[in-house]
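In response to the reviewer comment on reproducibility (Comment 2.3), we provide here a single inverse folding case reported in full, input and output, so that an independent group could reproduce the run without further information from us. The structure tokens appear first.
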């Protein structure tokens, strides 16, 4: 495993930080989207500098949040985060969410879905389609103001909350 890099003011593993150099097309499974030698170095590395068993991931680009749980007997790793983000974004868009989307966004989602459907043959809309061409994982960052706005009042708290940033592919 490669050297884990943390700083005093940022407990997040360097691999997961915005600007770290890791760009991963989240549409692809990790083993397809991240070079094998890189994956071998980062997959088992702890996501944070303290043992962490769950992380809440939120996004300015998506209406969903994702609680990433550590595998049994382990801590949340960089690999766990990449794999779980990919998995969660392969879920289908729910009717209740679709009903709240404006016409312009619906057209963009359908356009992205059409391109994806040519490859995977799943005709239902997926969460990944919501991102359009912004499917490159660029990293995680802290944004306390957004975190406060995004959390439902009186909802269960997760100690570690991070905002995922996506970019154009």
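Designed residues, in position order:
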């Amino acid at each position: 495993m490669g050297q884990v890099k943390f700083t005093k003011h940022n407990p997040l593993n360097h691999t997961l930080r915005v600007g770290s150099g890791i760009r991963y097309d989240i549409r692809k499974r990790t083993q397809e989207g991240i070079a094998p030698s890189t994956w071998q170095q980062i997959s088992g590395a702890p996501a944070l500098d303290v043992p962490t068993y769950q992380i809440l991931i939120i996004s300015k680009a998506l209406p969903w949040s994702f609680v990433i749980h550590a595998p049994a007997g382990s801590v949340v790793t960089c690999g766990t985060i990449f794999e779980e983000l990919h998995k969660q974004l392969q879920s289908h868009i729910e009717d209740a969410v679709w009903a709240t989307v404006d016409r312009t966004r619906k057209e963009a989602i359908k356009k992205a879905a059409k391109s994806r459907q040519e490859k995977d043959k799943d005709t239902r809309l997926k969460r990944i389609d919501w991102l359009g061409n912004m499917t490159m994982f660029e990293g995680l960052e802290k944004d306390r103001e957004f975190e406060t706005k995004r959390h439902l009042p009186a909802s269960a708290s997760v100690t570690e909350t991070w905002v995922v940033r996506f970019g154009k592919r």
